[in-house]
């Protein structure tokens, strides 16, 4: 059985939990709490010398980092990764967008607002991050005016990658009501077979609307 | 014939020129000078509403953005994109690393140092970017102590993606002499069949060493 090492309230790690649930595949989960420095332990650094989560570990010991690369590997052969070269690359286009133009603004804003003290110097970053995060959400809104899903006509790992931090963007100060197509898309993702909510994210009003049933794993 | 829209001195655009040369494939090149705002023209925004280069345009009009997604599409079926699922995802791992942990520091430092006036306010960014860029180069150096190439045992589009800005990192204030395995890898990339230098990059001492023959396209 594969092992996934990650922190449950990290969107990058949640991506993998969501994919595995939708694939109906079992896995071992190793919780790595980066707020307690567990990612810098000798054991974890032996897995990933960059000290970053998530990490995929195969039974034979092989290791992979980068959440979106892990999604690509785990989704191989399923409908969640198109086999057609154009469709697969379009899926990757939005996954690169997510890592370059979305996560560094929306996920970082969420981290600063939700997990750092109100008087932390990094709170000053928020004003700088805000317009770039809004730009990312606006690009998603425009895309959803043309196509139903980010990979094209079907739900794919591009949707999983983008859902992870978009559905808790309000925790980073982003008002999703301004992006009605994005809100509708979030609801359609949460209605996909096998969907599981992110653990430990009760602060997000949007996330609560998407999965109103109490999550037994929430912390 | 496909059309590539880009700016020749952009590393993200050069990636595609290098791949196409190594595949021996012809293409139309449309130069888009973002310093003159050509990426914000109505014609270009009709191709990519985010105003970003590079853009791939197929003969039938289909459009793709994100340099690394375009590399993935164009390299399909060639040795430069491994078909084995693990090897392909490991290749993508380093391409996501490039966009998340490398390009935002090394490419941005190069842009600020080389293309903005010495008294531009963004010069203050350099001190912030520097340690992250060094961390990326150090991660590459460690990897090259384990494997010869970024995708594994063969030259792949992960090497092309990382070469683009690494080989001109000195234009962003990074001393590559500190990373001897990276320097050796740069030389091995530049020795690959079909290699073409980046146009218009004579400021880089490292790039000059890699391709000492005068580039007739240099500007």
Automatic annotation (TrEMBL), chains A, B:
Entries under Pfam families matching the protein: GST_C_2, GST_N_2
InterPro entries per the UniProt record, alphabetical: Glutathione-S-Trfase_C-like, Glutathione-S-Trfase_C_sf, Glutathione_S-Trfase, Glutathione_S-Trfase_N, Thioredoxin-like_sf
Matching CDD domains: GST_N_4 (cd03056)
Gene3D superfamilies attached to this UniProt entry: 1.20.1050.10, Glutaredoxin
Domain GST C-terminal: 84-216
PROSITE patterns in UniProt: GLUTAREDOXIN_2, GST_CTER, GST_NTER
Protein name per UniProt: Glutathione S-transferase family protein
Organism: Pseudoxanthomonas gei
């Amino acid at each position: 059985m594969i092992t996934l090492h990650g922190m449950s309230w990290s969107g990058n790690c949640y991506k993998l939990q969501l994919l595995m649930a939708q694939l109906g595949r079992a896995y071992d989960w190793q919780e790595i709490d980066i707020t307690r420095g567990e990612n810098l332990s000798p054991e974890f650094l032996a897995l990933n010398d960059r000290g970053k989560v998530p990490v995929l570990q195969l039974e034979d010991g092989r290791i992979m980092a980068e959440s979106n690369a892990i999604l690509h590997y785990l989704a191989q052969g399923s409908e969640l990764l198109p086999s057609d070269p154009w469709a697969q690359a379009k899926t990757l286009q939005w996954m690169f967008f997510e890592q370059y133009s979305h996560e560094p603004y929306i996920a970082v804003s969420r981290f600063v607002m939700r997990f750092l003290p109100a008087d932390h110097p990094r709170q000053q970053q928020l004003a700088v991050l805000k317009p770039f995060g809004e730009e990312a959400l606006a690009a998603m809104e425009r895309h959803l005016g043309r196509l139903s899903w980010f990979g094209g006509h079907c739900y794919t790992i591009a949707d999983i990658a983008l859902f992870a931090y978009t559905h808790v963007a309000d925790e980073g100060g982003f008002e999703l009501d301004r992006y009605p197509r994005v809100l509708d898309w979030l609801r359609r993702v949460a209605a996909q077979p096998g969907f599981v909510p992110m653990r430990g994210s009760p602060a997000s009003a949007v996330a609560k609307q998407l999965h109103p049933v109490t999550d037994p794993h929430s912390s």
